[in-house]
Amino acid sequence: MTPPDRVPLSVLDLATVREGHSSADALRGTIDIARTADELGYQRFWVAEHHNMPAVASTAPPVLMASVAAQTATIRVGSGGVMLPNHMPFVVAEQFALLEALHPGRIDLGIGRAPGTDQATAAALRGVSPYLTVEQFPEHLRTVLALLGDDRIDVGPAARLRPTPVAESYPEVWMLGSSTYGAQVAAALGLPFCYAYHFATGTDVAAALQLYRAGFQPSPRFPEPYAMVSASVIAAETTDEAHYLAGPSRVMLQSLRTGRLGPIVSPERAAGMGVDETFPGTQYAGTAEEVVADLDALVARTGVQELMLAGTVFDPATRQESLARIAKVWGL
């Protein structure tokens, strides 16, 4: 059990595809990581939505979530997140209502506003629909909430729709964000908020969380604000080994910034590619004790109620070992 002075830990995974391996290998790796997180006592296991990226096999969160939830026991399983402008609200509500019916009390619906891809791919996802635009995000979010049991929201004719015939429970809906926009939306609707600090380190996380808490309007499920931040971490036996294992994450971040996308490279290959070791592919890399000290400082600085651990590595076994090292020192 987590000590009372430490917040729960959760896991974010992208089902990353490594060089010389297939998407099927990546998805099996995600299942293995999820099982490990479940056994270690992590709170949640979320999977991302990205499209048309050689390094990411997690394109359809509800599909992957169904497999993860079926092969784990108690950990909450969710989306980190569903990019709502890519999907019709009723479809999202149906998918997550079905997941909740299959795994009551274990499903999270994390919702984001970004496309999760480039503009051309986003256009391919949305087709010619005039209803799938970023401008309609607030309306579509409210529709999803209403369809999933939020009686505060009047959505007009959509109120006659039933995502599942006889719901006994509903998934927990989260607002995700990497700016103050998501924080303000979450506050206005009384939703828990997850700040994507693992890739938004250049923004002011404290300012976003301050806006969230100051503007929070209580909701039936969350009478008080509940905030989580994500951080990218790798824990290894030594600091040098952790920085070596973080090499693939530095290469991936550089490839994203240059548009030269490819699968995840091995640590050996990354070491020979000449990427500056100060390049921030992973925020916290070191021994478990060093990583936990950094995470403790992040909690103290942000005042969050939960942390979500991201991390790009070449081998899923490396991720499992890292999570186990952190869990032991954290006291899960």
From TrEMBL:
- Please name one Pfam family that this protein belongs to: Bac_luciferase
InterPro entries attached to this UniProt entry: Bact_Lucif_Oxidored, CmoO-like, Luciferase-like_dom, Luciferase-like_sf
Where the record annotates domain Luciferase-like, the positions are 10-305
- Family of this protein: To bacterial alkanal monooxygenase alpha and beta chains.
The name under which this protein is listed is LLM class flavin-dependent oxidoreductase
